[in-house]
Fold this protein.
Amino acid sequence: MPKFPSREWAEAFCKALNESAEYKSAAARWEGDIIFLATNLPHELGVGDRVAMKFLLKHGQCHGSEFYQGDAISRADAPYILEADYKTWLDVIAGRLQPIPAMVLGKIKR
């Protein structure tokens, strides 16, 4: 998997969703784009202090992704925006933190 956060990571995540029978079943009736907004990014990543990755989701399929950084983040829009700092997203990606409990604890904001 490419390094998070990047355009390549967003594309790979979208592809992984499309290859997941579990996601296809769980999201069969879901329709709505989601943005993952990552904040407090380390300077050495070279993408600025925050980025947004939008996933175009409909009925168990990811129909594409978009990557926003810098001033372009203000143009990113979706019905659902999930915001968390870099370390929280890494914990979610690694499976050390589940998304729903992270939202309840306020680590991921909606």
The chain has a mean pLDDT of 96. The beta strands are 34-39, 50-58, 61-69, 80-85. The helical segments are 7-18, 21-26, 86-94, 99-104.
